[in-house]
Specification:
Elements (H helix, E strand, L loop, with lengths): L1 H29 L3 E7 L5 H16 L9 E7 L4 H13 L4 E4 L7 H11 L2 E5 L5 H4 L5 E6 L1 H33 L19 E7 L5 H17 L4 E8 L4 H13 L8 E4 L2 H13 L14 E3 L5 H9 L5 E3 L2 H16 L14 E4 L2 E3 L4 H4 L1
Helix pairs in contact: 2-11, 3-4, 6-7, 8-9
Bound molecules: beta-D-galactopyranose and calcium ion.
The site of beta-D-galactopyranose has 14 residues, from α2.
Length: 374
């Protein structure tokens, strides 16, 4: 009896599925598939790869279950070459793609891409690498999705400064207890930031690609906020680009640790997480920032992005904090704008879209909230 019921259910279910599939393919064949092409500046970039995964999910979510608007989504990798990317855009146009999402290799070279697309009536959604305003104003149907770069610097400075101020207050309490009350009133005080106790934060800065809007802004604003708004005294021991890359940052940091100022470094401020993790690779090779609470001498390392690997490093205690570059909300905005632009009027329900630009908000991530950000 049970078997019969099961078989009966199976028959009904298969019939329903067949009907649904038939309805879908009918719908799909009468409707032209919207074609979306995406070109990435290069695939060897951890954040860009996470953004790519989010983009795939966001575009898939645009296809209603079963038979919603079917999309053709194609990703290509420009491999760090602007001329390769120009050709990729030309090919998408020749193949009658409706919208092209462009992660520019050289963000100052957008005009060639824009003119081609405008002539063919194809919309472009730029993302992550922001073309200059003048180019974005060249024609309608051009959009940009990214994050407000100065905010990342502000938040980095805030995280460092709050901990710095708290540490100075704790140092004062401990000192007051010893001198005035004659006892360890506030418990033993151990500095975690100002390791040499001179009330100055000795730091090194790992910068992203020269000329990238995020690298320029994050570097400048972080220090401006720390010293200006928060009045933290800082001393820059070294600063250099490591091109967003972990391996380059590891080399830079190893050289700095071996330099005559190496033992004085207290803090590593990095424009992104990959480079922060590269710095930690070098620290570990020198017996510093080892995982776990008893990991010996520990420098304060701060990144930006909140990549999966960075969140894991925060949880194990080698990376101190990061600032989330919200790939999920950027991906959603890109997908919303791209699909709607194909139909004529670009829109997204993501708050803050002004018809042309969407900037996601950055968020602070420390051991307090790293768990829930993953
Ligand atoms: C930044 C990100 C970096 C890198 C770069 C590539 O926004 O923080 O990690 O991915 O974009 O353009
Ligand atoms: Ca110091």
């Amino acid at each position: 009896m049970m078997d019969m019921i099961k078989r009966f259910k199976l028959i009904i279910w298969s019939a329903a599925l067949a009907a649904a599939l038939a309805a879908c393919s009918e719908g799909a064949s009468s409707e032209r598939r919207v074609k979306i092409g995406v070109t990435l500046y290069q695939s060897n970039d951890v954040f860009i790869n996470e953004l790519k995964d989010e983009l795939t999910l966001a575009f898939r979510a645009k296809e209603a279950p079963g038979c919603g608007a079917p999309l053709k989504l194609s990703f290509v990798d420009a491999g760090g070459s602007q001329s390769v990317q120009n050709n990729q855009v030309n090919t998408f146009i020749a193949q009658q793609y409706d919208v092209i999402c462009v992660n520019m290799v050289d963000r100052t070279a957008a005009s060639a891409v824009i003119d081609k697309a405008a002539a063919a009536g194809v919309a472009i959604v730029f993302f992550n690498r922001e073309p200059v305003r003048q180019d974005l104003m060249r024609s309608s149907n051009l959009y940009y999705v990214g994050a407000a770069a100065d905010q990342a610097g502000e938040i980095q400075a805030d995280i460092i400064a709050r901990a710095w101020v708290a540490e100075k207050a704790a140092a004062f309490r401990a000192d007051f207890g010893r001198r005035v009350l004659g006892r360890d009133w506030a418990g033993e005080f151990r500095p975690v930031m100002d390791l040499n106790g001179d009330a100055v934060l000795q730091y090194v800065m790992l910068e992203g690609e020269p000329g990238h809007q995020d690298a320029l802004m994050r570097t400048d604003v972080a220090i401006r906020e720390l010293t200006g708004a928060w009045r933290v005294k800082v001393e820059r021991l070294a600063s250099d680009t490591a091109m967003w890359q972990r391996s380059q940052a590891r080399e830079k940091m190893a050289a700095w640790l071996a330099a005559d100022f190496g033992a004085e470094i207290e803090c590593v401020i990095s424009n992104n997480d990959s480079m922060a993790l590269g710095a930690i690779d070098a620290l570990r090779e020198n017996g510093l920032n080892l995982p776990g609470a008893s990991g010996g001498r520990r420098l304060t390392v701060v990144g930006v992005d909140a990549t999966k690997r960075a969140l894991a490093a925060i949880r194990e205690g080698s990376l101190w904090a990061t600032v989330m570059n919200d790939s999920k909300s950027q991906a959603k905005a890109i997908a919303d704008i791209a699909v709607s632009a194909a139909g004529g009027a670009a829109s997204t329900d993501a708050e803050g879209f002004d018809g042309k630009f969407f900037y996601s908000d950055y968020k602070p991530v420390t051991a307090m909230n790293a768990e829930i950000m993953d």
